[in-house]
Design a protein that fits this description.
The structure is a single chain. This protein is α+β, with helices and mostly antiparallel strands and about 200 residues long. Helices cover about 30% and strands about 15% of the residues. The protein is built from five helices and four strands; from the N terminus they run βααβαβαβα. Strands 1-2-4-3 form a four-stranded antiparallel beta sheet, with helices on both faces. The longest helix has 21 residues.
């Protein structure tokens, strides 16, 4: 498979996106994660990082859904998910030069091994990126409202697809249209499949 199964994008104003911002509830879910406190891009935070990001007025929300390649192998599924989220993140980061800030799916991958768990400061803050969830956004309600897709959570079986959600926070509305077009065009071009290296 050379292209993703589905790519959905939406341009969303900051006011509309902020209706899905619920720091206490969403970051509260993070406490149940085995990686809680092990990445500088994830809670707990001394200050809320959303307020420290560059000023933005609109966002391009990006949802990528890719088929699961080996459904019966949990390790392969995890590797595929990590490869897919890194691929989406790198594409979003590529577009920061056009006046946006990338918000990736999952924890930061700027370094091969985050030093937070060892009590050290972030060694590469310019490469660090946050996820929508770590910033306090409810990704489930956002995707349902803005791209018309309800996220399915597979509790007792392997999902058929992996769904990743990221965004580009943009300085102005004019930038969002240009970015949305470029992202859609890039996805129409052949992409390497989201498989582990």
């Amino acid at each position: 498979m050379s292209i993703p199964a589905k790519l959905l994008t939406a341009v969303v104003g900051k006011t509309d996106l902020m209706r899905h911002h619920d720091i206490d509830r969403i970051q509260g879910y993070c406490r149940d994660c085995g990686m809680y406190g092990k990445f500088w891009s994830c809670p707990p935070f001394d200050h809320q990082p959303l307020t420290a990001l560059p000023e933005w007025t609109h966002a391009v929300l990006v949802m990528w859904q890719t088929p699961v390649h080996i459904p019966d192998d949990l390790n392969a599924l995890i590797e595929q998910f990590q490869a897919a989220r890194r691929q989406l993140g790198e594409i979003l980061i590529d577009y920061e030069s056009l006046g946006s800030t990338a918000v990736i799916a999952g924890q930061c991958f700027g370094c091969s091994d985050c030093v937070r768990g060892r009590g050290a400061a972030c060694c590469s803050p310019t490469r660090m990126r946050y996820s929508l969830e770590s910033l306090g956004f409810d990704v489930s309600t956002m995707t349902e409202e803005f791209v018309g897709h309800r996220l399915a959570w597979a509790a007792d079986k392997t999902p058929d697809t992996l769904t990743l959600v990221g965004a580009l926070l943009c300085r102005n509305h004019e930038t969002t249209g240009q970015l949305e077009q470029r992202i859609s065009k890039r996805w129409r071009a052949p992409l390497s499949p989201a498989t582990p290296n």
